[in-house]
Amino acid sequence: MKTKKYITVNQIAEYLEVSKQAVNKWINNGDLKVYRLPSGRIKILKSDFLSYLENNGLYIDHEFFKNGEKTIVIIDDDEQIFELFNTYFHNINPNLRIEYASEGIAGLLAIGSNKANIVILDIEIPGMNGIEVCRKLAKDKSLTGIKIVLVSGHMEKYLNEINQLDVALMLEKPFKLDDLEQRLIPLLSKN
User: Fold this and answer.
1) CA 11, 14, 16, 19 torsion: positive or negative?
2) Could you tell me the CATH number of the domain that includes residue 82?
3) For residue 98, what is the enclosing H or E element?
4) What is the pLDDT along the chain (191 residues), one digit of tens a residue?
5) Domain, as residue range, for 14
6) Number of domains comprising the chain
7) Fewest Cβ atoms nearer than 10 Å: which of 2, 52, 84, 117?
């Protein structure tokens, strides 16, 4: 199913719980960007509505704007690992949404607020470690279905604890891009 890039005045009014007249006023004042067709009808891009919300400090429901895109949250205190994954994923699919956190608690917040599909998680991170993050995710029923990929250079040290977790994939550091291609891409296509 093709996702829609345009949004209607009715959908905006419903989203903000205001009248259609209020939305039309914003359009007429030039506050909300629209495109006019030769027929006089208007088209509003979802991205322009999102900009309107951001510029006015209004609540943003990320689920509403997802357009079927997948979100990956990377939790690792090594920024080079984030850059590697970020570059890699944007090369294979520029529509992926990539979020980053350098420690466990910030990672949990990023997962919840962005409705992550996949979490790439280092075990040894500051604050709450990756094992604890996995346990918290398992307890939150609103976050079921998230695929967790554990990445660590110390996998054997944690094997007993890892075996008790619902982990989709484990990658031992250092890893090769071929490992990502063969193991992570199939996981991405399933989710």
Assistant:
1) positive
2) 3.40.50.2300
3) strand 97-101
4) 345 678 899 999 999 999 999 999 999 999 999 998 898 889 998 888 988 998 898 988 867 776 567 889 999 998 888 888 888 888 877 778 899 999 999 999 999 888 888 999 999 999 899 999 999 999 887 777 889 999 998 888 999 999 999 899 888 888 877 777 778 777 776 65
5) 6-65
6) 2
7) 2
